Amino acid sequence: MQKNVQKLYSGNEVIVLAAIEAGAEAMFGYPITPSSEILQGWIESASSNRNLQFLQTEDETSAGFATIGSILGGKKAFTATAGPGHVLMQDPLSMAENLRIPFVAIVMQRGGPSTGTVNYSQQEVNLAAFGGNGDGLRVVYSASSIDELYSLTIKTFNTAWRYKFPSILLGDGYLAKMKTKFSPSKSIRPIKSTEMLEGKKNPTYLRNCFSSEEEFGAELDKNIADWNRLRSQIAESEVYKINDASEIIIAHGLVAQASKEAVEIMRNNRRKIGLFKPITLNPIDSRTLNKVSSGKKKIYIVESSRNQLSHIIKYELDKFCGEIVEISKPAQGFTAKEIVNKIEKD
């Protein structure tokens, strides 16, 4: 028998471990590739842990509303979905945005439109950040590795429960399915959740429908003011070899990993280029973005969608006078060499 055999974990398996570490008690979902193993893994964990609950609903809309109901019933609950299921979940996500419910959704992106492919995509950025009939008061994280899937799952729960905004973690089919060595990090500690509806003499009043424009407008203004006040506390990013750079690549998720390798290749060829990686796509870390882009000659925005990240970046850039080059490859992955070739051809 071999000694020192180390288990390999998929991204979906790591998410289940992280959700349990974050204190999640219930999961509601409908299986859809490439997120199905999250529900499957949760069910397996619940079979040996009576503190965990689950329900496979008839569709993703029901899963979203069941998640809301469970949270209002005192549970720290979440859901997971992908692609068309993410589309169906916009109604409950909008309700959670309106009622300021700490709704957590793990979204493993797949290629679209419609059923598209089951493999890989970054085409659900707009849907995650600005879907539904609201103004996008949702926190969106983007993971670029299996280690980040673990840490950002915990952070997604923490953010949802601390600030009471729906919080979404974006992964993709590659991250969901790939397997690697993994050791849980203890760098992010889960926060204790408080019940949405606490027992008290007078009822807690949550309102989702208004007949008066002025009354509803006042409620929206309050929520938007909270968002604007808190966004700097939530926004997060990483930079790599940026100090002496005259050009920068902006990329998120797995594309950021390939971009980091591309930076190394071009640095070895004496090209002064760096990387800005947004970890939150909504809100973007605009303070750091504008700081690192100031004085740069050129920005390359690289993504596996048709400029969804680019639209966000362009909106947040303040007084950038250089050139912006968009490098997009919808629903397809990038290698570092591809990124280098596209930049060198520019």
From TrEMBL:
InterPro entries: 2-oxoacid_oxidoreductase, PFOR_II, Pyrv_Fd/Flavodoxin_OxRdtase_N, THDP-binding, Transketo_C/PFOR_II. Residues 18-193 form the Pyruvate flavodoxin/ferredoxin oxidoreductase pyrimidine binding domain. GO terms for molecular function: oxidoreductase activity. Keywords: Oxidoreductase. Residues 245-314 form the Pyruvate:ferredoxin oxidoreductase core domain. It comes from the Bacteria. Pfam families: PFOR_II, POR_N. This is Ferredoxin oxidoreductase. The lineage of its organism: Bacteria, Candidatus Berkelbacteria.
